[in-house]
Amino acid sequence: MNLIGEHTDYNDGFVMPVALDLYTYAAVGPRSDRRLRVYSQNLGETIDLDLDSIRPGKTGYWSDYVRGVAGALESSGYRLRGADLAIVSEVPLGSGLSSSAALEVSTAWALLANSQLEIDRTTVAKLCQKAEHLYPETMCGIMDQFISCHGSAGHALMLDCRSLDFQLLPIPTSVRLMVCNTMVTHQHARGGYNERRRECEEGLRALREVLPGIQALRDVTLDELNRHRNRLNPVTFKRVRHVVTENERVKRAASALESGDLPQLGRLMADSHQSLRDDYEVSTPELDLMVELAKGQREVLGARMTGGGFGGCTINLVDEARALEVQREIEQTYETRTGVKPTILICKASDGAGAVPSTSEPISQLQSSSHRRFNPLTREWVLVSPHRTERPWQGQTERQEQESTEPYDPNCYLCPGNVRAGGERNPHYSQTFVFENDFAALKSDVPPAQIDVEGRGLLVAQTESGICRVVCFSPRHDLTLSRMSLPEIHNVIDVWVEEFQKLSQQPGINYVQIFENRGLMMGCSNPHPHGQIWATSTLPNEPRKEQEAFADHKRQNGSCLLCDYINLEEASRERLVDGNDHFLAVVPFWATWPYEILLLSKRHFGNMSALDGTERSALAGILKCVTSRYDNLFQVPCPYSMGFHQQPTDDRDHAEWHFHAHFFPPLLRSATVRKFMVGFEMLGSPQRDITPEYAAEKLRETNIGPSPDNQL
Q1: Percent of the chain at pLDDT above 70?
Q2: Is 472 within 8 Å of 527 (Cβ atoms)?
Q3: pLDDT, tens digit (0-9, with 9 covering 90-100), for 521-534
Q4: Global pTM value
Q5: 657: left (phi over 0), alpha (psi -120 to 50) or beta
Q6: 278 in Cβ contact with 270 (< 8 Å)
Q7: Which of the listed CATH numbers 3.30.428.10, 3.30.300.160, 3.90.25.10, 3.20.20.70 matches domain 366-701?
Q8: Is 427 exposed, middle or buried (0-12, 13-18, 19+ CB in 10 A)?
Q9: What are phi and psi of 25, to 5 degrees?
Q10: Which residues contact 296 (CB under 8 A, 6 or more apart)?
Q11: Is 155 designated active site?
C-alpha cells in the first residue's frame, strides 16, 4: 500500500509504500516433471502449466501473474523445477492494495525455494515487474513489487524509482493504518492506468524539446513546467503537474516522518488526494466520499486515495486508541450514503516476503526449551521457560486462606439482613441478590467531556460513565461456585443473563463485563460468594483487542477465530481439561497464568442472551467442574479472577464474536506459592514456567468426583 507518491514510480520518481500485515501465502511441493499445477483457494480454481511452453501475452485470467513470474524467471536464466502450488490470499482482490504484486512475489519466492535458487530481493522485484509488463500487460512501476520484497515492520519505505535506493522511515507506534475499501472494483488493465502512462510519456516528449537534459518527469521542476506549459495540451499539463508536485510531496513527507510531524504528513496526504482527483483524474465519487468521511473524524491524522485509482481504497492514519470507533463511524456513514457496506481494515506496517516458519514440529519438542507462543485474541506473545521448573523456590509464600465454615456471618456486609458498608440493609434474600455497588468505580450521571492538552495526544483524558452492580450468588456465606449445587449455579446464570439484557438496553452502555474475583490473593476481602457487573460507555482494553482479532480473522479467513481454535484443540486434545455437549474448557495454547483456563461455547453466538435452557445447565456443569478441579488441585478454595467476554452492546451486529470466559488463578506450585507479574512481565512480555500442556494434564488428573456433565 502506498502512503504517498501515486503514479510517480513509472516516471522515475519517488514513492513511499508500506507493507501491510495482509499476506498472500504460497505452499509449494516439488514435482518430477516440468509442469506447474497451481490451485487458488480464493477462487477455487486449478491451472496446469508447462514450463517449457510459457510465452508472453495476456489471457485476462489470474494465471497470467503466475505464468508471468515463471516465464520471467526462466527467460532470465533461472531454470525452474516443476511444482505443485497452493495459493491463498488475505489481500482484497481488485481493491488497489497490490494484490497482483503480492501474488507475483509470493509465487517467485516459492518457485525459487522449490528449485533451490537464491536471488537478491531487488532482482526478484524487477523480475516480478517484468512479469506484469509482459503477461497481464499492465505497465506498472516497480513500487508494489519492491515493497513486497523490502518491507520492514513499523516502517514506511521511501524509494527512488530510478536508482532503487531506499530509506526506511519509522511510523509512530501510536498510529494505525486504516484501509477503507470503497467496494468499487479497481482494475488497471481495464481502466485508464495505461492511458495515464501514455499521457505522461507524451508530456515527457514535448518537454524534452525545450529541456533536453531530462530523462523522466521526475527531472522537471514546477517552475520549468509552468514556463513551458504552452507546449502541452491542457490534459497533459495536468497529468505532468501531478507527477511533479507529487514527487515534492513525497520528499516533504519523508522529512515529516523523520521529525514525527504527523500534522504536516496529514496535510501532504490531503494535497496528494486533491491532485489525484483534479489533475490526474483517477479518483471516483466513492473515493472522494471516503476521504471526506475520514477527514471529519478528529482522530484521523491523514487521508487520501491509494493505488492506481478508478476505485479501490483510501489510506488513513488513525490514532490507535480510537481506531475501532473511527472504523465503525465511517462504515455506518458510508453505507448510509451509498447503500454499499465497505470493508475497513486496521493494519500495521509489516515485513516483506519471506519463508513461513515451519509448524510441523510437535509441541512435545517444546516441553524443555524456552520459546514464545502467540495469543491470537490479543495479538501478543508469551515467553515459556519450562526448564525453570527445576529451580528451588525461595520467593514469597502466602498465608493460606481460611475457609468459611458458617452459613451466616453477622459481620459480613453481603449476608442477608446485614447492613452494607454504604449504610443500606440487605433484604433477607433466599436465592441470588443484585444491588448497585455502594462504592461504584463508575457513575451513570457523568457529563461527557474530553481534554487533549496542546492537541498533541500526550495529555489526553475523557469522562467515562457506567453502572456497577454486585451479584450475591447465594445467601449462604460458606459456599463457593464449586460447592454450590447445579440448580443454584443455574440460577446465578439466569441472573447474569437478565442483568446483561437489562444493561445492554441502557442508553450509552456499549459493553457489559461480568466477572468474579475470588480469594484474598485476588483482592477480594469478603469470602461471601459474589461477583460484579460493570457496564461501560466505551469498549475496555482487553475486549477491544479481542474485537480487532475476531474482526480481522473473519475478514481474512471467512470464519470465527474461536470456532477454528476449538477444532484444533479437539483434534489434539493435549490441553483439554473439561467438556460437555455444549462447552469446552482448555488451558489455552498461549496461556499466561500457570493454570489459566479458557471456557468456550461449542456453538457460535456472541453473548449469553443466546443461551437456551440446556446450554445454561451445561454452563453450570462446566463452571462447577472447573472450579472443583482448581480447589482439589491445590486442596484449598482456589483464588481466581473469572469473567465472560461477550460482544459489545453498541447496537451493531458483531457476528464475528464468540462467547467465552477466562479463568486466571494466581497459584503456581502450591496453595501458598503464587505467580507474580513483575520485572520482565511488566517491562517486556508475560512469562510462564510450566507449559500449558503440563497444566492441562495436572488439572485432568485431579479428581472432581462423579459428574454427569464431565464427558472428557
Answers
A1: 92
A2: no
A3: 877 879 999 999 99
A4: 0.55
A5: beta
A6: no
A7: 3.30.428.10
A8: exposed
A9: -100, 140
A10: none
A11: no
Residue given cell 470493508 in the structure block: 343
Least reliable range by pLDDT among 181-190, 272-281, 328-337, 445-454: 181-190
Domain boundaries 193-347, corresponding CATH code: 3.30.70.890
Q: What is the CATH number of domain 20-150?
A: 3.30.230.10
Helices and strands in the chain, H and E counts = 16, 28
Q: Phi/psi zone of residue 423: left (φ > 0), alpha (ψ -120 to 50 degrees), beta?
A: left
C-alpha span between 223 and 26 (Å, rounded): 48
Residue 27: its H or E element: strand 24-30
Q: Closest Cα to residue 488, out of 479, 498, 499?
A: 479
- Judge contact between 270 and 302, C-beta under 8 A: yes
Active-site residue (options: 530, 582, 645, 660): 530
pLDDT digits (tens, 9 = 90+) for 119-128: 999 999 999 9
Each residue of 546-600: pLDDT tens digit?
999 999 888 877 889 999 999 889 988 899 999 999 999 999 999 999 999 999 9
Residue 638: all three cell numbers together:
482456589
| Non-local CB neighbours of 396 within 8 Å, separated by 6+ positions | 674, 676
Domain boundaries, the chain: 20-150, 193-347, 366-701
Residue 244: in which H helix or E strand, if any?
helix 234-259
- Residue 667 CA, chain-centre distance (Å), reads 31
